[in-house]
User: Fold this.
Amino acid sequence: MTWILVSFFVLAVLVVWGFKMSRGRRKPLAIFPADYGLVAQTVHFKTQDGLTLEGWFIPHAASRQTVVLVHGFDMNKGNVLQRTHFLARDYNLFYIDCRGAGGSEGHSSMGTKEYLDVAAAVSYLEQYFPLQAQQIGLYGISMGAAAVAYYVAQGKTAKCIALESSYYSFKNVAKRWAWLHVRIPYFPLVGLVLFLKEKTQNIQVENFALQSTAAKITCPVLMIQGEHDRLAPITKARKTYKLLPGPKTLWMVKNAGHTSCAKEGGETYIKKLQEFFKTYLK
Assistant:
């Protein structure tokens, strides 16, 4: 009987720890627009569920197109700025901190509520920068890609979207992340945490992954995927690609792992993003 109680206690402790891990770590901002000679306005805006988020709006005097850029889990807007600052040559840019990251309130939802952050960012642009927001493109990396895809799949307007290191299955990426980062097996801990998340929030986590949203996205899509991505394997990326009904491109980056496509892609990465937005965001 004692060992049963001890087992339940250990499991309870692990579940609490698992929930804390799922909220991510709030990493301090270490990369800023000024590092690239860019001038940004730091802005704050509210989500539908009442959180105050922080963003950087980087204006372009001659452009009426804006790219909204959304980071991944355990990242912040500075990490995305580092990869994509070159887009400021042609567009207004709006980098946002999702819930629980950078200067924003709340905790990460691991990708089940971040679409509300995307929606709030677009609404803010339309209200306060209507001229610059006449055409909006979206970029998301990893969890941010899932949030962008879910947002657009709900019928929201975007001229085009770029999805980097996106994942086909929510449960599969959680399983791989837990094992690769903390050597925790899916059963029983990760599976139990996701089960409780679904029951307490009355959701199905797979509804927020590309396997559920890709077929509903009709705008042009650029998929950027690392050939050696162990969290979101290229085989799964191909399945996502087949589901997309509109204009689409899949670029597989040699030697790149999860979220390292910019580093490994180099000048080609810059060229691919520039060409995509110049083609569809005009």
User: Anything to note?
Assistant: Residues 3-22 have pLDDT under 50 and may be disordered.
